[in-house]
């Protein structure tokens, strides 16, 4: 990957030992069924990020000063299963180093590995799944690590909450928990879904954000665009509320399928990522001296190190 630091931030904010945040790019597109190109997502996202203002007006913060370490891309692609295992391993490695771990895909199957790692490391995990598609198939095309199966495992062993759904197979109804599913057609006419969804979350929340949850009018560059999606400010309002009221332990953003003649989707993805970090860390003071601020305590299973903001 050409980019040396995330968003072109100064080296001193990009070193692992000084960074609270780790960004793992996973340029994988092995199982997508319609438009290919999600493997180009991380590069387009990083290029857009470099051209973005790093001061966030709304939170009056410069979250990059908390430190963002950009890892090497996960390029394992011999099979969907081996990719998921590689993502699982690297995600867990950085959670254990007490980092706030974020992943940029790639198609949605990459999230199977990240969710598995977070679920092993945090008790009573809620997975907040924001997507146009239910992604609840147990297997598809002969693999349980297909993009159509992104949250099947999470539906079995986490508190899965699905938001923005407007496309699914009838068979997925047998797996779906309707009480914890917010369909786009209902969300469009009743804004109480945000409070309801948050009420159903446990304290520890992992967010898996498929960009096709957005309306194609604001994010056309994705593999399977579906009409009737989320708009920008309603999405940010919801995310802000989740970050304020819950302990968000990490997140991934997937399914950017860049298009050379349409760059606004890349910028939306870049901005969404930065907004989510800004909401997470808006009350943290920026340390001038990053030495010994992190990595000092081991992370034990079933003990959240992220309860106190300063623990990163
Ligand atoms: Mn989707």
The termini sit apart by 27 Å
The shape, in one word, is globular
Q: What is the element string, with H for helices and E for strands?
A: HEHEHEHEHEEHHEHEH
Assembly annotation:
single chain
Overall number of structural domains: 1
CATH class: Alpha Beta
Average of per-residue pLDDT values: 91
Notable traits:
312 residues, 8-stranded parallel β-sheet, Arginase, Chain A, alpha/beta, 14% strand, globular, single chain, disordered C terminus
Protein model, in words:
With 312 residues, this protein is of the alpha/beta class. The chain has one domain: 3-Layer(aba) Sandwich (Arginase, Chain A). It is built from 9 helices and 8 strands. Strands 2-1-3-8-7-4-5-6 form an 8-stranded parallel beta sheet, with helices on both faces. Strand 1, helix 2 and strand 2 form a beta-alpha-beta unit. Helix 2 packs across helix 9. The C terminus is likely disordered.
